[in-house]
């Protein structure tokens, strides 16, 4: 049983990313969308926190949000569109959006 | 049942094998049709309201079913009939209405959350003697039981909210 | 096949409507005899502080709703141990009985036991 966690809050203004990373299981995945994609900004603490865990969970980011923010994201982040977002929600047993 | 799903099912029956159907329809070979319940917690101007709508469209495009849309907390604002979006911006409230109507979906707004936030249909506006109503078809006002009912029918419950 | 739902409540009692509306989801599920779990974590544990006086800020007292959980058959009520400790709270002096989850791993295992999850 595995969970797809979804975040949309900026990691700089908010503690959801920190809380989420604490309880991410080894089979879980994290999808960053909206302002949560700022966590992928180069040379920042959130990116470092994600990089430290790079092999322990699957990390996805919503393509439109990366594009909107003109971000350069590391190769180990999997970029997804909405069709793939739907597929992810099926592949994992449940979706936990951090509202 | 949504039109796309009806067409997909008919196509499935007409084709000689399920394999051909999946290849032609472009459906992922990993999936069979899933039932989604989608809950929205944010207003029409929130990016997450648009994101929920795009996800919902993608779910139908992928051949899946949406058993219910349930608008809760600030999601009730996404059902407001009175949102006036600037001409050069997306009118997400209007797009939600169109999406629900065109696909004949069950669009439910939580009545307790709606009342608290001043989203009332004609019936409630009359009941509480308010100046006007701002919730119309295709939206129905109902209780949290509808959220639970949707969760019982759905393979996946997906929530959208926040930014 | 009855599907189970875990509600994770992360907000303080009077920080808008989140705490109240998370509880409403849980109690509604209880009214329909559904398998519902409730986890308090992060600021959500602040809902469990004893002897709060909501009237002082003219807010709804959620303690009555919390006490109703048992009446509605909601027995699976948990609190994140780390969230409690961070806020100077202890399992012994809360307004309702909860099962404390001391480790983060306990939380991810808890989530794994449910079909659906809503984190408010």
UniProtKB/TrEMBL annotation, chain C:
Coiled coil: none annotated. Signal peptide: none annotated. It holds the Pfam family DsrE. It comes from the Bacteria. Gene3D superfamilies: DsrEFH-like (3.40.1260.10). PANTHER family: PROTEIN TUSC. Belongs to the DsrF/TusC family. This is Sulfur relay protein TusC. It comes from Pseudomonas syringae.
């Amino acid at each position: 049983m595995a969970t797809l966690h979804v975040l949309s809050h900026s990691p700089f203004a908010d503690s959801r990313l920190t809380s989420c990373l604490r309880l991410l299981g080894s089979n879980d995945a994290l999808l960053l969308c909206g302002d949560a994609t700022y966590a992928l900004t180069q040379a920042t603490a959130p990116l470092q926190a994600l990089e430290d865990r790079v092999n322990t969970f699957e990390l996805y980011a919503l393509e439109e949000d990366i594009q909107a923010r003109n971000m350069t994201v590391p190769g180990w982040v999997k970029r997804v569109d909405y069709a793939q977002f739907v597929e992810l929600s099926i592949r994992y047993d449940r979706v936990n959006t951090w509202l | 049942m949504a039109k796309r799903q009806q067409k997909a099912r008919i196509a499935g029956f007409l084709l000689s094998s399920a394999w051909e159907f999946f290849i032609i329809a472009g459906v992922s070979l990993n999936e069979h049709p899933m039932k989604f319940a989608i809950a929205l917690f944010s207003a029409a101007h929130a990016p997450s309201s648009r994101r929920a709508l795009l996800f919902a469209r993608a779910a139908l495009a992928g051949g899946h079913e949406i058993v219910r849309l349930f608008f809760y907390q600030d999601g009730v604002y996404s059902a407001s009939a009175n949102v006036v979006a600037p001409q050069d911006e997306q009118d997400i409230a209007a797009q939600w209405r169109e999406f629900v109507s065109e696909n004949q979906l069950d669009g439910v707004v939580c009545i307790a959350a709606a009342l608290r936030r001043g989203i009332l249909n004609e019936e409630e506006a009359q009941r509480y003697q308010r100046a006007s109503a701002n919730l119309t078809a295709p939206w129905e006002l109902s209780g949290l039981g509808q959220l639970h009912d949707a969760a019982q029918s759905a393979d996946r419950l997906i929530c959208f909210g926040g930014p | 096949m009855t599907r189970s739902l875990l509600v994770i409540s992360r907000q303080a009692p009077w920080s808008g409507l989140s705490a109240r509306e998370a509880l409403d989801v849980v109690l509604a599920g209880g009214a329909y005899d559904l398998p519902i779990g409730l986890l308090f974590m992060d600021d959500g544990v602040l809902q469990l502080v004893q002897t709060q006086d909501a009237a002082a800020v003219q807010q709804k007292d959620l303690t009555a709703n919390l006490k109703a959980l048992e009446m509605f058959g909601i027995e699976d009520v948990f609190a994140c141990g780390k969230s409690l400790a961070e806020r100077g709270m202890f399992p012994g002096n809360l307004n309702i009985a909860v099962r404390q989850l001391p480790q983060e791993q306990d939380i991810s295992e808890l989530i794994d036991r449910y079909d659906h999850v809503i984190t408010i």
